[in-house]
Amino acid sequence: MLKLIVCIKQVPMVSELNWDPRTGTLKRDLAEGMMNPACHHALEAALRLKDLHGGHITAITMGPPMAEEVLREAMAIGADRCILLTDKRLAGADTFMTSFILARAIEKECSNFDIILCGCHTSDSETAQVGPQLAEELKIPGAAYVEWLELKENILRMKRLSDNFLETMEMDLPGLVTVTTSHYQPRYVPLSGIQDAYDKCDIITLDADDLKLNIIGTKDSPTRILKVYSPCSEKKNIEMKGPAKKIAEELLDKFGRKIGGAIKKDLKAYEQEK
Amino acid sequence: MNFNPCLKHKTVRKTVSKFVETELGPIAHEIDQNARFPVEVVEKMRALNFFGLQVPRKYGGAEMDSISYAIVIEEISRVCAAMGLCITVHNSVGTNPIAQFGTKEQKEKFLPPLASGEIIGAFCLTEANAGSDAGGVETTAVEDGDDYVINGTKIFVTNGGICGSALIFAITDSENQRSTSSVLIAEKNTPGFFVGEIEDLCGMRANPVSSLFFEDCRVPKSNLLGRKGDGLKIGLSTLDSGRIGIAAQALGIAQAAFDDALKYSKERQQFKKPLSNFQTIQNYLADMATEIDAARLLLYRACVFKDSGKAFGAEAAMAKLYCSTLASRVTGLAVQIHGGYGYSKEYDVERYFRDAKVTEIYEGTSEVQRMVIARSLLSKPT
After folding, report:
1. Is B363 noted as a catalytic residue in this protein?
2. Are A26 and A18 in contact (CB under 8 A)?
3. Chain B environment of A12 (Cβ under 8 Å)
4. Which of A43, A193, B342, B372 is the most buried (most CB within 10 A)?
């Protein structure tokens, strides 16, 4: 039987982002959570593999206790087993440490897997690092930004967009893919599934002791966040005075890149060509 | 007492909200304008158990608790009250009475197609001369061999134009009307079952409300729900549950009107400042939000009473009375805050305003709810 693992992250809803300006980390307990969109697409990719080939899906997440909600949602839509890694000591883990912890949990609970599917990136941090790092930790092949995949005789065939080229690749299993949001539009959750997910199913909860880990998320993570800030933009009128030729040159020197971006032309290359 | 919604109820709300905002949101205005029943969305709702919300799992339903049920109806109605109406009437009064009072054979025959949405249910009580007075119906069902022969006309039947089965309230003994009204299950393809014109109504226009005519319509005696003469008992019990659905629907409409009014008040500038800077508008918003919260708590209390097996008739009537009155008030204020634009079909508050009114009328008028509540109060020893 095909054994699939889907790594899911609960992210704050976009409209409710709050962070602690002192530590530079998100205040997840204050925000309404949702399943990270790319993880949702990865789950859908796993469900379609299961629909075609049969199989068993384990959904796994690491986060605060309230991250249980995204696991229940995964179960409502078709995941068979769910694992929640939650421990205050692990809070604040960076992507490197998260991949390390996920790898230990997978080795402990579901080492006999065929494919691990992750979202290609998360909407709250956008690093896109956990998936590829997890493949390294588990010493298995990994492919990022996969748009489409199919399974034939234990070989995973994938398509991914890279630098405007569509690559078709093959991978021996076990392996890991990170899935984009372009192809696998998630199915709706049936209401009976929600009832079952909450009333009839158990979630396996693991902490650092269960994984025999003696680490502190914030202290042992090599990444340091220096600053978190809201991107801001402002509208401003700028007046340029002088002869037309001089103004045009000044305009292109100062704002050429922005204008080029807006009209989708590299003005500098165009100028050199001329 | 815990006022935080549990994770399950949060998930139900998010799931339904996502579905209706994606599927019904973009067409809600159009289907209201064209009085069109959105079959393409209904098709998607079937697979997600919207038609078997509280039907037991063994008959293909989702077997939800009553708060989950109320949340589903509230969220659909927040986006499209006419579809909220279709779903709540189908579930609470078109299907659940069979689950509650039906024989094993009736459940096995009717519940699976109703729970899957293959057929849509309706409940026929109101007649030209009967509505609030449930005992005053004139439609007759006369025994003839193995059948009942139904004759009469039912009006304002929600889902009438699209129903596949209907629960008919009829008198089965003309000598003593009150004691012998009964409920029969009639299937649409039965000879003598006719659907009238779709009503041209003020609100809920996407729901095909129609009359149903019965002319020597023969239904087998095995389609009698409960026992002969149980009509009033089944009817009143069904309406208690139905009121939870209509209260939830009214609450959804009120929430939608409030959300739009809040947003508009922050955007619309008058006297060089947003409307929300004016204290009068702030007072409107504060009152609307407070009343919506109070209504939601009353509704959820009725749901908890129902699921715990307690009598919940008075609680459901209070929830229905308060939620529907509130919906009319809040939608009125939302139109007021929008000013001239609120009176235009360009903005959704006009639709909410029209949709809200009928929640004070159907499933028992506000006056009937007060009768039910007062009866409960006065029956207690002092």
Report:
1. yes
2. yes
3. none
4. A43
Q: Does A267 touch chain B (CB under 8 A)?
A: no
Please indicate, yes or no, whether residues A147 and A260 belong to a single structural domain of this protein. no
Residues A190 and A79 in one domain: yes
Segment 176-215 of chain B within 8 Å of chain A by CB: none
pLDDT digits (tens, 9 = 90+) for A144-184: 999 999 999 889 999 998 888 889 999 999 999 999 999 99
For residue A250, the enclosing domain spans: 244-273
Q: Which of A72, A73, A191 sits opposite B50 (nearest CB)?
A: A191
User: Would you state the pLDDT for residue A54?
Assistant: 95
CA distance A15 to chain B (A): 14
B325 in a domain, yes or no?
yes
What total number of domains does chain B contain? Answer: 3
Please give the DSSP secondary-structure letter assigned to residue B131: S
pLDDT means per 10 residues, chain A with 274 residues, are 95 68 63 89 96 96 93 95 93 89 93 94 84 94 94 92 88 94 94 92 92 84 78 80 90 79 67 64
The minimal CB distance from B48 to the residues A66, A69, A190 is found for: A190
Quick one: A126 and A211 in the same domain? yes
The reply to whether B263 touches chain A by the CB within 8 Å rule is: no
Regions of chain B where pLDDT drops below 50: none
Pairwise CB contact (< 8 Å): A191 & B18 = no
Which one of A34, A190, A198 has the shortest CB-CB distance to B47? A190
Mutate which of B13, B15, B16 to disrupt the A interface (most A C-beta within 10 Å)?
A: B15
Of A68, A72, A192, the CB nearest to B62: A192
- ipTM metric: 0.89
A192 and B68 within 8 Å at the Cβ level: the answer is no
Within 13-52 of A, beta carbons closer than 8 Å to B belong to: 34
pLDDT of residue A268: 65
